[in-house]
From TrEMBL, chain A:
Pfam families: BPD_transp_1. The chain crosses the membrane at residues 28-58, 78-105, 117-139, 151-175, 207-225, 261-285. This is Sulfate transport system permease protein CysT. Belongs to the binding-protein-dependent transport system permease family. CysTW subfamily. It comes from Hephaestia caeni. Residues 79-282 form the ABC transmembrane type-1 domain.
UniProtKB/TrEMBL annotation, chain B:
Pfam families: BPD_transp_1 (PF00528). Its main location: membrane. It is found in: Cell inner membrane. InterPro entries: CysW_permease, MetI-like, MetI-like_sf, Sulph_transpt2. Keywords: Cell inner membrane, Cell membrane, Membrane, Sulfate transport, Transmembrane, Transmembrane helix, Transport. The complex is composed of two ATP-binding proteins (CysA), two transmembrane proteins (CysT and CysW) and a solute-binding protein (CysP). The keyword Transmembrane helix applies. The keyword Lipoprotein does not apply. Part of the ABC transporter complex CysAWTP (TC 3.A.1.6.1) involved in sulfate/thiosulfate import. Probably responsible for the translocation of the substrate across the membrane. One of its GO terms (molecular function) is ABC-type sulfate transporter activity. GO terms for cellular component: plasma membrane. The chain crosses the membrane at residues 60-82, 94-115, 135-155, 195-221, 241-261. This is Sulfate transport system permease protein CysW.
């Protein structure tokens, strides 16, 4: 076994390293130039340069043209749907994602491991598959659609359908953000509060909520950011009616299919700026929560 | 007995029930629906939909795209994590943020950027046409879009893992006379193999399942530039639902295999994913 043989060598090596004075600060490990050079080149070729084309193209359009397409009435409706539905789905996921995380951390039940693995299904299931499955469920003749239709509730091909699909897509972001913080918090804190006479609700909103707040916010922001750009799971269930059930990414595709590169670019630029603002916000929340954790 | 936020057994059971019901409605039901719809016309129709010529070519194309983009992302992930974890330099956190950037870009925009570069009206469009090189509406475009989407997967799994493991092992091996390459192959690689596998698993699942980005660059040429998710869309839009769900069920199986292997890595080797996939 190669690794076992190396492990013995490693034992010696480590002993040598610890006994040696810490004066030897020059780089022992090779490959810095090679790996960093490759990383930056590859990153630039695949990600950075292609992304900047959007902004260069958009800048070339001139401000008036950009506003006329990027902020047209139809585009504004599409942003409204994409952002509004992401906000609603993020809100639902914040509540239920927190509950699922709490159950997974604090309770034992049969099949817990399977439930835990299943939470990541939305990360693993291709979005188009999720899209057609949800549409089949919520169409008027579907399992859930058939139950809701007599109540006058239509889900598929309405904005509610968009929210339902985004709840599916966003759930793991909240659960996986909150879970480790809740595990760190420890059951004893909750027990101590209960022993001191706090009610279940008091324990929740005085003890648990403040502790998991930043993680909850991070999970919400991640789910929201993902929802704004989501395409595959939505185009089947949304209905795709301009001004009503047309999401922003679909509008980009529609413009492209009409060979309107300028229109597609303008909307893409607006969405990229929004995503980068969200990314900045997520990073700020994380910096803030780390500082808070140290204080 | 333990007492906590939910102090009575009844409250605990109620919260567990609500959580499981929520997961049942939002996660389990769609998964079951895929297989139920796929088999709605019987096993014969299910099998026929899978061995149909366009379906087979979609499977082949999906495997080809993943076979090119995943190894390239592995090489990138190893190089990036080596540079970031084993050395100190300025701008490291900016570099990590930039590597994660594709996660915050809409899949449709990820496809669009390559159309703007290599499409007929794109910057390199005329040159490519003059030299008879096809990128958009062809396999290279599909590979590029898939690579963009899956770019951070391996790197973001390896960077924290290698940072945690430090540099002692490598420095020791080098001081004992191992070459840089030997050190990487016989010390670093065995140390990170399960984390690497975890990243590859998630990278592969996304590469094979990606829809939005490849949809923009594919051109939907049946039997030629349709990956499995795109083939699902075409069948579905033709109201050929059973066949669409049959192909979708293969992708759902891939997701289940991915989740199973991922969970095994988590239980056995304590590998943890990072939120944000």
């Amino acid at each position: 076994m190669q690794s076992a043989e190396m492990a013995i060598d490693m034992g010696d090596g480590r002993a040598w390293h610890r006994s040696s004075p810490k004066s030897n600060h020059r780089r022992v490990i090779p490959g810095f130039g090679l790996t960093l050079g490759f990383t930056i080149t590859w990153l630039s070729l695949i990600v950075l340069v292609p992304l900047t084309t959007i902004f260069i193209r958009a800048a070339g359009m001139g401000w008036d043209d950009f506003v006329a397409v990027g902020l047209s009435a139809r585009a504004l409706k599409a942003y409204q749907l994409s952002f509004g539905a992401s906000l609603a789905a993020g809100g639902i996921n914040t509540v239920f994602g927190m509950l699922v995380a709490w159950v997974l951390v604090r309770q034992d039940f049969p099949g817990k491991r399977i439930v835990n693995a299943l939470v990541d299904l939305p990360f693993a299931l291709p979005t188009a598959v999720a899209g057609i499955a949800l549409t089949a469920l919520y169409a008027d003749n579907g399992w859930f659609g058939g139950l809701l239709a007599p109540l006058g509730i239509k889900v598929a091909f309405t904005p509610i359908g968009v929210v339902v699909a985004l709840v599916f897509i966003g759930l793991p972001f909240v659960v996986r953000s909150v879970e480790p913080v809740l595990a760190d918090l420890g059951q004893d804190v909750e027990e101590a509060a209960a022993t001191l006479g706090a009610s279940g609700w008091q324990t929740f909103h005085r003890i648990i909520l403040p502790a998991i707040g930043p993680a909850l916010l991070t999970g919400f922001a991640l789910a929201f950011a993902r929802g704004v750009g989501e395409y595959g799971s939505l185009i089947f269930i949304a209905g795709n009616m301009p001004y009503r059930t047309e999401i922003a990414p679909l509008l980009i595709v529609t413009q492209l299919e009409q060979f309107d590169y300028a229109g597609a670019t303008a909307i893409a630029a607006v969405m990229l700026i929004a995503s980068f603002a969200l990314l900045l916000l997520i990073n700020l929340i994380q910096v803030w929560s780390r500082k808070r954790g140290m204080a | 007995m333990t007492r906590g936020a939910a102090s009575t057994p009844l409250a605990r059971a109620a919260l567990l029930g609500i959580a499981l019901a929520f997961l049942g409605v939002f996660l389990v039901a769609p998964l079951v629906a895929v297989f139920a719809e796929a088999l709605s016309k019987g096993f014969a129709a299910y099998g026929a939909a899978l061995i149909e010529r366009d379906a087979l070519s979609a499977v082949r194309l999906t495997l080809l795209v993943a076979a090119i983009s995943v190894p390239l992302n592995i090489v990138f992930g190893l190089a990036a994590s080596w540079a970031i974890a084993k050395f100190d330099f300025r701008g490291k956190s900016v570099l990590i943020t930039l590597i994660d950037l594709p996660f915050s870009v809409s899949p449709v925009v990820s496809g669009l950027i390559y159309v703007l570069l290599f499409g007929a009206q794109g910057w390199f469009g005329p040159w490519l046409r003059a030299h008879d090189v096809e990128i958009i509406f062809a396999v290279p475009g599909l590979v590029l879009a898939t690579m963009f989407i899956t770019f951070p997967f391996v790197a973001r799994e390896l960077i924290p893992l290698m940072q945690e493991q430090g540099r002692d092992d490598e420095e020791a091996a080098l001081s004992l006379g191992a070459s840089g390459w030997q050190t990487f192959r016989r010390v670093t690689l065995p140390n990170i193999r399960w984390g690497l596998l975890y990243g590859v698993l998630l990278c592969n699942a996304r590469a094979m399942g990606e829809f939005g980005a490849v949809s923009v660059v594919s051109g939907h040429i049946r039997g030629k530039t349709n990956t499995m998710p795109l083939h699902v869309e075409i069948l579905y839009n033709e109201y050929n639902f059973a066949a669409a769900f049959a192909v979708a069920s293969l992708l759902a199986l891939l997701a289940l295999v991915t989740l199973t292997l991922k969970s095994i890595l988590e239980w056995r080797y304590g590998i943890h994913g990072r939120t944000g996939y």
